Input
Amino acid sequence: MKEQTYADKLREELTYNPKHGSAAMKEDEIKRADEFCEDYKDFLDNAKTEREATAEAVKLAEIAGFVPFEKGKVYTAGQKVYRVNRGKAIMLAVIGKKSVKEGVRLAIAHIDSPRLDLKPNPLFESDELAMLKTHYYGGIKKYQWTTIPLAMHGVIVLKNGEKIEFRLGEEEGDPQFCITDILPHLGAEQAKKPLGTAIPGENLNILVGSRAIEGDKGTDLVKLNVLRLLNEQYGIVESDFLSAEIEFVPAAKARDVGFDRSMIGSYGHDDRVCAYPALMAALTCNNPDYTAITVLTDKEEIGSEGNTGLQSAYMKYFIYDLADMQSVDGRDVLSASECLSADVNAAYDPIYADAYEKRNSCYLNKGVCITKYTGARGKSGTSDASAEYMARIRALLDRKNILWQIGELGKVDVGGGGTVAKFVSNLDVDTVDMGVPVLSMHAPWEIVAKIDVYMAYRAFYEFFLD
Ligand code: MN
Ligand code: MN
Output
């Protein structure tokens, strides 16, 4: 063996050289990661929307012994409670041994993903094709959403309050839906346009029917046939779309990717890939010192707006209710609390290397990623975790042998993004972003590495118990 030189010695002692995870990891730990991800894939397929993710979280939480939180009731250390916000967000708490006055531990992920929502008056017929008009939700590259199989999820609420749930296009034998695109033979004009404008938003119309109602003359017979079928199957009329939240999402299921099955391809990794590990961390953490709270929130993709988004007071109210239960001032709880804002970062993609700065990018298989700040340009629109809090978190991860890395979202001035971190920080809580690197983020089929998913779970779990 070659003798270690002085330079080798200094290099080892002084320089920061994160190791590649899968090569450095033991076989049994990789096996645990793979097993964890089998259940994660089921979650992805069962929870494609915020409502479905909330329902799935309730189901799994109740199996794990969680009960609905009742304001005014006193819960003691080790007890497990949850509160659902309007069917679209959920907070799960494991009561700690210490008073909440000493702070709580928060892991917060979001369960909404980019998709195509229906407009309030969506159904029309054009040249004997029935279509639904959509309004896209979140940041999408519109061309990616044409000519892929789509499934219909969501609810229509009738005037009498009855709720009709839709989940069509997921089961074997279900019909699916799609947005058409021009064939290349006639697409020369389209091909000249910049990618961002080649498919206008108003072209994202979903094909839902082509057969006319029989034995009649008149207009809109295909649309009428669709309405007849919807009425027969669901008891709705056209105006019921006015009180609906219908989301069209990719119909594809989560699958292993690669000859080595090291990755998972799926719709909605952003941010279920953090939501599921954060949920599992709450479900498996028993008797923590500090009260551990996982929040799965809605509306992150459009700025955390509205009463199910994290800019609203709903999480604060929950923490205040926990404080009241122990006769503590709610603001004292917040000021003493710590948060991991559990959201994804963009994994380095060698095909698009120009957009990334290699030394400060995150990579597939190098573990859970800490993002000190997000934002755009001169750190605009972000919280920035303190050096003190960064030190505390990296020490914890090292102490627990969790594979982790740092990451910025691309090169300076190339673009930017944001998470819920700044809204939690605004409540006087120490917060940093921590999550899983994703390739093709916001695409209909995103890619993550299984090792990173498992490391996210371990990180949230150890944070809760620390
Ligand atoms: Mn996200
Ligand atoms: Mn996102």
